[in-house]
Design a protein that fits this description.
Layout lengths: L1 E6 L2 H8 L2 H9 L3 E6 L12 E3 L7 E3 L1 H12 L7 E11 L2 H7 L4 E5 L8 H7 L2 E4 L9 H13 L31 E2 L2 E2 L2 H4 L3 H19 L1 H4 L6 H21 L1
Parallel strand pairs: 1-2, 1-6, 5-6, 5-7
Antiparallel strand pairs: 3-4, 8-9
Helix pairs in contact: 1-6, 3-5, 4-6, 8-10
The structure holds adenine.
Adenine (ADE) binds next to β5.
Length: about 250
């Protein structure tokens, strides 16, 4: 996977990505990272990349030409016309399925905006995907780009080692992960659930599945709609909901 980032703050991208698991994957050559400074493509005296908006209004806009030239410098080196992700609160909200799907690309270009945004005409010409990382507004696209690259990296074969590998993890099958415990056996008076100490693998698996369903029903009921549950498991969910409703009515 080759990540290319169009940004006014390349050192922010490099510092963030060259750390921890993504940093290790870059050192191993499983990922490459190129942060292209859009300012290097502003061919005017002061390397200016922004200007006032036509029609008035507060704030400055990133101009089309430097963004386009920086993009071209990347696109002329990739095997095919690359996918270009523009980070914006107006985009489709990022999720695990998108991370999995984007991890199949050979090259991904991320375009990070600043100020009030970017001239619409260059977006029309180069952007293939408009993506948001959630319904809140950030000061620029760098953090969202890093969030996306982090989660996409995890889906690239070899990036996670066996221990880190995300087979049974949050969002696998649209269920949240079950609770986990390490030593000691008792901490602050709380004991590790008995079944986990039993060595009985089938029972442990059954307990974990039930905990995943319980958690998802409690914390992220919206995810359950897409989860693959058996009839028996759906009955369990209905029973939980009934129980929670009764408990809620009692506290009223
Ligand atoms: N730029 C500013 N806010 C953003 C968000 N929530 N997602 C993606 N890009 C952004």
């Amino acid at each position: 996977m080759n990540f290319h980032v169009l940004t006014l703050f390349p050192e922010m991208i490099e510092n963030g990505m060259n750390t921890s698991i993504t940093g290790r994957a870059i050192a191993k050559g499983l990922l490459t990272l190129e942060a292209v400074n859009i300012r290097d493509y502003a061919f005017n005296k002061h390397q200016k990349v922004d200007d006032y908006t036509y029609g008035g209004g507060a704030g400055m806009l990133m101009q089309a030409e430097p963004v386009y030239l920086a993009y071209e410098a990347i696109a002329e080196r990739t095997a095919k016309k690359p996918r270009v992700v523009y980070l914006t609160p107006q985009g489709q909200v990022f999720n695990q399925a998108m991370a999995r799907e984007m991890a199949l690309e050979e090259d991904l270009v991320f375009l990070c905006g600043h100020y009030e945004g970017i001239d619409e005409r260059v977006l029309e010409e180069i952007v293939t995907d408009y993506v948001s990382i959630g319904d809140y507004v950030l000061t620029g696209g760098e953090l969202p780009a890093m969030v996306m690259m982090d989660s996409i990296s995890r889906m690239v074969p070899g990036v996670l080692n066996n221990q880190e590998s995300g087979e049974t993890e949050s969002f696998a099958g649209n269920l949240l992960e079950y609770p986990q415990y390490s030593r000691p056996e008792e901490w602050h008076g709380k004991k590790v659930p008995e079944v986990l100490m039993s060595g009985h693998h089938a029972n442990i698996e059954k307990w974990r599945r039930e905990q995943s369903i319980y958690r998802t029903a409690k914390r992220r009921p919206d995810l359950l709609k897409k989860a693959d549950l058996t009839n028996k498991e759906w009955n369990y969910v209905r029973q939980l909901r009934k129980q929670w409703k009764e408990e809620e009515e009692q506290t009223k």
